[in-house]
Automatic annotation (TrEMBL):
Source domain of life: Bacteria
Pfam families assigned: DUF6011
Name of the protein described by the UniProt record: Uncharacterized protein
């Protein structure tokens, strides 16, 4: 039986099983990922800014 990668509860729908997360955990996972990507962009912008200041 497939379980959620985040909370280890059994997954009921084929969609959840396919995604590996329950609906709630899927949303939380995506939010965390979006937050992470947002931070990545911020770091890139910060480096670019520092690069420009050095030149
Ligand atoms: Zn879960």
């Amino acid at each position: 039986m497939s379980t959620c990668k985040r909370c280890n509860k059994p997954l009921k729908t084929p969609k959840s099983i396919d995604e590996g997360y329950g609906p709630v955990c899927k949303r939380k996972h995506e939010e965390a990922e979006a937050e992470f990507l947002k931070r990545q962009v911020t770091i890139d912008e910060e480096l670019e800014y520092q690069e420009r200041m050095r030149a």
